[in-house]
Automatic annotation (TrEMBL):
Heme b binds at residue 425. This is Peroxidase. It comes from Potamilus streckersoni. Residues 142-169 are annotated as: Disordered. The keyword Coiled coil does not apply.
Length: 671
């Protein structure tokens, strides 16, 4: 077997076999029962680049099995490229230069870099990675695993037990914010980022506590330390490493970088989808698809727990929608809002131009999400001076200056900055409840509701209404280093009692991504550097310093997550410490100023002046009042608990979105 023709045929035959194996890929991914794997990779599918790379690897494997290892990867790649596999795909943006509407996948937002902010593109970094070096040609970017003196870092579960455990048992200390703070946080996180984890080449979940334990490319298992007071001795948490970015010609980038499955722009992708395929599946002409209720539509391919007849797993623009029912309720609210506005525009315009009605509605809903996020949510937990410094609040009048749109900044979420936004895990309540029409509360432990949407189906299909009423009227756990037991011991608890620790997983994830330790991010934020003295931890209380000292070898070793989350919080219980404030603010600053379609930009990307004035009246209160059944009043600021300074106001007094300035489609307006 020497002629090029024979080699070509051999490769083709191996390619056929590899293709056949790949067909089973999605099926294998969907079949997994691993909760954390499903969370990251629900519906299996990966991007074209990853698929191409896996096809290439699979062809190499088949060749090896057939004793044809002498054919080199370069030869195979060349032949595959002749068939359109492993070749960079060009994007043509000519149609989008003056378009008033975003693309679905985020492409062509930045006209100089059409792929920036698109789904399935690499994440950025604020600081370069600190991976452990692995063997050349095998896995080079190993997780960060040693401290400054070369000693192994502490076990992540030990860190979690020492620093993130609630000592007050089951009683949660709440702050002056409401659970809307919690639920908006997760909702908006799911608009901007989802980091997929690695799969085996057949699409199935790696077994990191079993056969794949020593596969350093795929796994970083969390072994439970002896004497743990919740997890059984000798157990292990199946932690799978985040998938590595593959470049378009099928080479794995070094140092390793992570992927974002979603459009990183705050563009309502969790309502509308981040790919054309998702979008088509979710949309119904002018409207978003719903099931009776109206509820979110059914997703027959999703996996969740179904306990009663008539229940189903739900579908939305982000695949994590079924993770907890309060999240699904927030998703439902914005599908209602889309359908409400679309119906009004049809009435106003008397048009049958479905596409314009749909896109204009999507543009309005996206603007509402941006406003609520930047003008209500962020200022609830970021101090005023941070909000001002990073220009997070929207303007009161006029447009964002063209010069403020920073087209040379990559809008991608960053592997370290977005990571910091896990601060919201401090807000996860131990309960999920519904407030009935009569005001009566029904309460469930959160671990009974993970991946189990049954609460949505209670109360004659008005579950989402009842959950939203509950969140607007209940206090949120304090912003601090504590992760409540429902997420720290019982995350994703299955029927047989298996569960995870979200704090330990977060710490491990930071190491998986090769994130530098806490002290380096202090420097990035211009805060005083750490020295070898524990007293240099000036933003930690003496009590917490002591806990850290008992956990880490020296201050320079403290994990980023643990260091920033354990900084002394603000006395109102809503704000965190200075490093966390700085990093989270940087991330949201970049998303705002690198978005060509930011809602305060001039037309065609933005709105006409009278329309923008109307958008400025919108608030979470107005969206709740317009959509939630039997809701007569809301706290003036629904992100805060009701109090003397934040009284209930009647929905009829809440300023609402006035659609009069949309008298006609923008394209047809004079001037
Ligand atoms: C019941 C509520 C929640 C649950 C069950 C939950 C669960 C999880 C899990 C399992 C992960 C993946 C961890 C890993 O493997 O590295 C994750 C990631 C994350 N969570 Fe949450 N979370 C919740 C609420 C929140 C909230 C309130 C926020 C923010 C305010 C938030 C922000 C994030 C972010 C930014 C990530 C990283 C996502 C990525 O890069 O893919 N989560 N969450
Ligand atoms: Ca998005």
């Amino acid at each position: 077997l020497t002629t090029p023709r024979e080699i070509g045929d051999t490769i083709n035959s191996a390619l056929n076999e590899a293709n056949r194996r790949q067909e089973n890929r999605t099926k294998n991914g969907g079949k997994s029962l691993d909760q954390l794997f499903l969370f990251h990779n629900r519906l299996g599918s990966n991007d074209q680049m990853t698929k191409d790379k896996e096809l290439l690897d699979s062809v190499m494997k088949v060749l090896q099995e057939r004793g044809k290892s002498f054919i080199t990867m370069d030869t195979v790649k060349q032949q595959l490229q002749g068939q359109g596999i492993c070749v960079p795909k060009a994007i043509n943006c000519s149609l989008y230069i003056d378009s008033p509407y975003r693309t679905i996948d985020g492409s062509c937002n930045n006209l100089d870099h059409p792929q920036w902010g698109m789904s399935f593109k690499p994440q950025r970094r604020l600081l370069p990675p600190a991976y452990e070096k692995g063997p050349e040609k095998v896995v080079r970017s190993l997780p960060r695993c040693r401290g400054k003196n070369g000693k192994p870092l502490p076990n992540p579960r030990t860190v979690s037990n020492n620093i993130h455990k609630s000592l007050s048992g089951s009683t949660t200390q709440t702050n002056e914010a409401s659970l809307m703070l919690f639920q908006w946080g997760q909702f908006i996180a799911h608009d901007i980022g989802l980091t997929p984890v690695s799969t085996r080449t057949d699409g199935s979940a790696p077994e990191c506590c079993g056969v794949d334990k020593y596969n350093l490319d795929l796994c970083l298992p969390i072994e439970i330390p002896p004497g743990d007071d919740y997890f059984k001795n000798g157990t292990c948490l199946n932690f799978i490493r985040s998938a590595a970015v593959v470049s378009e010609d099928c080479t794995v980038l070094e140092p390793r970088e992570q992927i974002n499955k979603l459009t990183s722009y705050m563009d309502g992708s969790l309502v509308y989808g981040s790919t054309k395929a998702e979008h088509t599946r979710l949309r119904n002409g002018v409207f978003m698809k719903v099931s009776p209720g109206p509820n979110l539509p059914e997703n027959k391919n999703a996996s969740c727990t179904i306990d009663h007849k008539g229940e189903f797993c739900m579908d939305a623009g982000d695949s994590r929608v079924n993770v907890v029912p309060s999240l699904a309720s927030m998703h439902t609210l914005f599908v209602w809002e889309h359908n409400r506005i679309a119906a009004k525009l049809i009435e106003l315009w008397g048009t049958n131009d479905n596409e314009t009605v749909f896109q204009e509605t999507r543009k309005i809903v996206t603007a509402q999400i941006q406003r609520i996020n930047y003008d209500e949510f962020l200022p609830t937990f970021l101090p005023n001076e941070t909000v001002r410094k990073y220009k997070l609040r929207s303007l009161e009048t006029g447009y964002m200056e063209d010069s403020e749109y920073n087209k040379s900044s990559d809008p991608a979420i960053s592997s370290d900055g977005f990571y910091s936004f896990r601060n919201g895990h401090s807000w996860i309540p131990n309960q999920q409840s519904l407030t009935g029409e009569d005001g009566v509360l029904q309460t469930f432990n959160v671990e009974q509701t993970y991946n189990n949407p049954h609460l949505i189906f209670l109360k004659n299909l008005t579950g989402a209404h009842a959950m939203l009423r509950w969140m607007a009227s209940t206090g949120c756990p304090r912003s601090d280093r504590i992760i409540e037991a429902g997420a720290r011991d019982k995350l994703f608890m299955t029927k047989d009692g298996a569960s995870l620790d979200l704090a330990a997983v977060n710490i491990n994830r930071g190491r998986d991504h090769g994130l530098l330790p806490y002290g380096e991010y202090r420097k990035l934020c211009g805060l005083s550097p750490l020295t070898e003295s524990w007293d240099s931890l000036v933003d930690h209380t003496p009590e917490v310093r002591e806990l850290l000292k008992n956990t880490y070898d020296q201050p320079a070793d403290i994990d980023f997550y643990t260091g920033e989350l354990s900084e002394t919080p603000g006395i109102n219980g809503r704000t965190f410490g200075p490093t966390l404030n700085c990093i989270v603010a940087k991330e949201f600053h970049n998303l705002k100023f690198s978005d060509r379609y930011w809602h305060e930009r001039k037309p065609p990307e933005g709105f006409a002046p009278d329309q923008l004035r109307s958008i400025r009246k919108v608030s979470l209160a107005s969206v709740l009042c317009e959509n939630v059944k039997y809701l007569q009043s809301v706290p003036k600021d629904p992100f805060l608990s009701q109090s003397c300074s934040n009284p209930l106001v009647s929905c009829s007094d809440v300023p609402k979105l006035d659609l009069t300035p949309w008298k006609q489609p923008y394209a047809n307006r004079p001037g």
